[in-house]
Specification:
152 residues; mainly alpha; 6 helices; binds zinc ion; transmembrane helix; membrane; transmembrane
């Protein structure tokens, strides 16, 4: 799933929890829970055959996604119900780290941690139902907006 819906859940967590460590743990857990739900981006970049080109494509998409997530975070800091900045930062970091680890392992070719990529992919296939990004993007927007609605 994109970073933006994960971030929206981090905002929600930050309004319910006062302990930064717990916020971080719940952020990580929430990431994998969201990833279990079939979200339509599993086929993203599959049309690109070259592995390196596909990774570059992923990074481009991730950059736009991250920019949206930061915008969302900025909007929340400006208008949302902040409980504690440390809690907010911990929750956001918790929801981001699972995908950032994946990108870092892939980018730096950290073969020792490749098991993590296998695990992350396995989470995505727990419910083996894939559908088009054409439905995936609207679905993820709905998830983001729904979580935002209960966060503000
Ligand atoms: Zn993920």
């Amino acid at each position: 799933m994109f970073i933006t819906p994960h971030t929206s859940l981090a905002l929600w967590i930050s309004t319910r929890i006062t302990d930064p460590l717990l916020a971080f743990i719940l952020g990580v857990v929430s990431h994998f829970v969201l990833d279990i739900i079939p979200h339509g981006d599993e086929q993203l970049g599959r049309h690109i055959k070259d592995k390196k080109q596909r990774f570059i494509y992923f990074i481009k998409v991730a950059t736009v996604d991250l920019a949206l997530a930061i915008l969302l975070l900025y909007f929340f800091v400006a208008h949302g119900p902040i409980v504690n900045y440390y809690v907010l930062a911990s929750a956001v970091f918790g929801t981001w780290i699972p995908d950032f680890s994946w990108i870092a392992i892939e980018y730096f070719k950290l073969n020792k941690f490749y098991w993590y990529i296998v695990y992350h992919e396995r989470v995505h296939r727990l419910i083996n139902w894939q559908y088009s990004i054409v439905y995936g993007v609207p679905f993820q927007i709905i998830v983001t907006l729904s979580v935002l609605k209960i966060s503000f």
